[in-house]
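Quick log. Single chain, no ligands specified.
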Amino acid sequence: MRRSPQFQRADPVALSTLIECEVIPRLMGARHRSGGQAVPVEMPVISPAEVEAFTPLTLQVEADELLALVEAMLARGVTAEALLLDLLAPAARTLGEYWKDDRCDFVDVTMGLWRLQEVVHELAARVPLAGGRANDVRRALFAVVPGDQHSFGPMVIEQVFSRAGWDTDRLGESTAALLCERLSGSWFDIAGLTGGSECHIGALPSVILAMRSVSRNPHLRVLVGGPAFLENPALVDDVGADGTAPDARAALALADAMVQDVAFQTGG
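-> predicted structure:
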């Protein structure tokens, strides 16, 4: 995927074709069949100014007030996926930048992220998932890198995969033992780990090796993401993962391409 700055170890031709013909239309809801023709649909978007105004509010108001703002965006036609990826995820990243720049302390950031998590939970409850694939169920497990505490990333990416038709699972607490227990007990096509910083990466190669050794799926693909891998993409090879992507949309496209590639190689 490290053949390009955004994807690691993926066939660029296959990936490009998949994104253009399958993933983007399904993600964005822009393909509607009409006599076999694709009809583009223009969807309302979230402006950078709205993100800039929303982020400080996570430190100032309660979760129900944030949810009211989100509901107003839903009412004007913004999709749940757009809210997750273009509003809530950027807000969480910016909170991390606030902390790094000493604009607020750890408690403030923790409370802001907790409020964002509450909004994600409510959003998931109020906007039901679309019907999944009937004959092609793909399964993914998400967790933070063991030892890391940044749980917001796995929560968002799980929602994105679920809304795209994947059967997903997420560990609230992540340890090597729990990851191996889940992978040995159930079949997963993809395991995704999110790391907030490099301080917990040291043990990850052995964790991923153990995950592969016990996985019920001998062709398990392991994706890694988060700030640690955005800042240092070389870590992807260092930890023995199959790839990374800069955001949840790209991770979904990459996961779809990987599963399709495994099916082609194995004749599945």
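Residues 186 and 216 are 7 Å apart (CA to CA).
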